[in-house]
Write a structure and sequence with these properties.
The protein has 2 domains: 100 residues, SET domain (Beta-clip-like), CATH 2.170.270.10; 93 residues, no CATH class. Helices cover 21% and strands 26% of the residues. It is built from 4 helices and 14 strands. A hairpin with a 5-residue loop joins strand 13 and strand 14. Bound molecules: zinc ion. The site of zinc ion has 7 residues, from loops.
């Protein structure tokens, strides 16, 4: 039996190579494996920390990191869009799953959800969506952190200026079904507040 692959990999107008549908996908369909060949290691393993710099790794079940073998094409090649048609899931095997109907020939895109610290223009976005925010990353600066206060019981209280900024981005995230990114933002903010003065928080 012969079966065509449901996706193909070729140059993308967004960036580098991308993943393109060869057939129709409906919400909930698995589009492609994140990495047909991969390693799954403990998140604290030095190999996981080095691999994280490539930004191609996936955190799985909070404890493991999935490192794709980049000699084999897979969902790890998906470009970012500010209005994506798919999502990456990392429980068990990493996979890219359709969230909005995708037509044959259309590029399959996901939302990276990167959070940076003091690098507001690190990752310019070329997704071309009318909803494009201009940058892939959401940046938290030291000035932002000054508007957050850690109480004695470890609760974090935000001043209105920061609360408004996070609420605006939170509404955007919800509108594209990516509200889980809010957790990464909260984690980054807490690590910024708890770090030693002058040190940089390693962001996602
Ligand atoms: Zn964009």
């Amino acid at each position: 039996m012969f079966r065509l692959s449901p996706v193909e990999f070729h140059d993308s107008p967004i960036a580098g190579r991308g993943v393109f549908a060869r057939r129709q996908f409906r919400p909930g369909d698995v589009v492609v494996a994140f990495a047909p060949k991969q390693e799954r290691v403990d998140a604290r393993h030095p190999q996981a920390i080095t691999a994280a710099e490539t930004r191609l790794t996936l955190l799985s079940e909070e404890r493991f990191v999935i490192i794709p073998d980049t000699s084999v094409h897979g969902g790890w090649l998906c470009n970012h869009s500010c209005d994506p048609n798919a999502s990456v899931f990392s429980d068990g095997e990493g996979r890219v799953q359709c969230t909005r109907p995708i037509s044959p020939g259309e590029e399959v895109t996901v939302f990276y959800g990167w959070v940076t610290h003091n690098e507001p223009e690190r990752d310019p976005c070329h997704c071309g969506s009318p909803r494009c925010r201009g940058f892939i990353n959401f940046d938290l600066s030291d000035e932002d952190a000054e508007h957050a206060h850690v109480l004695e019981d470890n609760r974090v209280v935000l001043e209105e200026v920061l609360e408004r900024r996070l609420a605006e981005y939170g509404a955007f995230l919800r509108s594209i079904g990516q509200e889980q990114v809010q957790q990464a933002i909260a984690n980054t903010l807490v690590r910024m507040k708890l770090r030693k003065p002058g040190s940089v928080v390693c962001a996602y």
